[in-house]
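Tokens as discussed.
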């Protein structure tokens, strides 16, 4: 019996995608729920799971093919079976200890088989295979089994004891481009990823439709750096996440947005839409292009929750595992070119938002202080804004308020 393999149903905002890769080839056995292929759209990457157990009989749409929602991309043969695996051999420990190795007289516990998609989801949420009951053939753990366990699980209460410090993570690597082969004036032509093409389209749209201006300021970072250094170790022990600078900037931006609601607004035709919530987008560079995952209701998040979500966004963005909902919407965006060494830049708006804040590298500079030249850690800030909605006075005052909040971070706690 043959079963069709179809593209997942896309949301209304996604019309088509491109098959990024096939993880199985014709003739290979597959289990229901196992990852077969990935489809790249202009927003996220969708997984194509196996609908049933069987053997991959045919691939009708190879990698690189443009496909639409629900389209058939291959077929599975349910009647074909995989070759049986040989019985497991006795362990070396049994042989050393003189224990019996006759499998007929010894019961060996059999571990549950975890499908790749389920394994990735468990790793993302720190689940163990023993916590999830498999509903697949032979007790296989499927992705939906993991999701079901996550849905019914409640977050454990915070413990008073110190948590172990997480191992240091390697710095994010820049997207790599394959070198052009040696020769006289060589060239190599490759198609844009769908995400990069969409980003290019939106950036050109922003330049064409908005009246973009940028205002700059500088912030003395010593107070934030000292506060961070003083409480960093205890913060990590208590919350299990590193205390970075982004949470300070998110909190400062939200407080400034409360005072200047037009910066948190957007234009819809001839109307101005003022948003009574604060969904802060955090720009993340990936090998496929720029994505902006959104911190929903960021004003309700603690600094620990902000740091944890930003870190999670960054890790999953590199693997194309962000969901469509996570990168849609937003009322204001923050981008940090400083992680790549940028000292100053003019960020482009993220339509239909009216403003975007650019962070940059912290660098020691000579500054005048009480009639003397001293060395201080300084960061340049840039606020690009849509002059159709935001006047220069409000833009400058907004950025000055962020500067003042960061130079006196106690105000973030007191909300003054």
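Sequence:
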């Amino acid at each position: 019996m043959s079963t069709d393999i179809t593209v997942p149903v896309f949301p209304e905002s996604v019309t088509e995608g491109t098959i990024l890769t096939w993880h199985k080839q014709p003739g290979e056995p597959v289990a229901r729920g196992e990852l077969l292929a990935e489809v790249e759209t202009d927003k996220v990457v969708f997984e194509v799971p196996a609908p049933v157990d069987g053997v991959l009989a045919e691939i009708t749409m190879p990698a690189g093919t443009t496909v639409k929602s629900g389209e058939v991309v291959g077929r599975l043969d349910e009647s074909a079976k995989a070759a049986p695996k040989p019985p497991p051999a006795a362990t070396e420990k049994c042989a050393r200890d003189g224990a019996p190795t006759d499998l007929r007289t010894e019961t060996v516990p059999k571990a549950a088989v975890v499908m790749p998609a389920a394994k990735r989801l468990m790793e993302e949420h720190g689940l163990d295979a023993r916590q999830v009951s498999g509903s697949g053939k032979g007790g296989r753990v499927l992705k939906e089994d993991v999701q079901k366990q996550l849905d019914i699980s409640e977050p454990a209460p915070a413990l008073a004891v110190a948590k172990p410090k997480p191992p240091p993570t390697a710095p994010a690597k820049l997207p790599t481009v394959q070198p052009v082969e040696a020769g006289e004036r060589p060239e190599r032509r490759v198609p844009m990823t769908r995400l990069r093409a969409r980003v290019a389209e939106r950036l050109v749209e922003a330049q064409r439709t908005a009246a973009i201006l940028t205002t700059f300021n500088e912030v003395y970072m010593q107070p934030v750096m000292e506060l961070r250094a003083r409480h960093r170790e205890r913060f990590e022990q208590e919350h299990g996440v590193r205390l970075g600078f982004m949470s300070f900037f998110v909190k400062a931006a939200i407080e400034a947005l409360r005072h200047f609601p037009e910066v948190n607004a957007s234009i819809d035709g001839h109307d101005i839409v003022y948003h009574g919530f604060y969904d802060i987008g955090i720009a993340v560079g990936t090998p496929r292009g720029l994505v902006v995952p959104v911190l929903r209701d960021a004003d309700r998040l603690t600094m620990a929750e902000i740091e944890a979500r930003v870190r999670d966004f960054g890790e999953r963005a590199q693997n194309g595992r962000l969901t469509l909902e996570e990168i849609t919407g937003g009322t204001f965006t923050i981008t940090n070119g400083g992680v790549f060494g940028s000292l100053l830049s003019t960020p482009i708006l993220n339509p239909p938002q009216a403003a975007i804040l650019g962070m940059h590298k912290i660098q020691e500079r000579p500054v005048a202080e009480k009639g003397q030249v001293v060395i201080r850690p300084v960061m340049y800030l840039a606020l690009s804004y849509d002059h159709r909605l935001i006047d220069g006075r409000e833009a400058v005052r907004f950025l000055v308020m962020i500067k003042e909040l960061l130079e006196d971070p106690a105000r973030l706690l007191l909300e003054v």
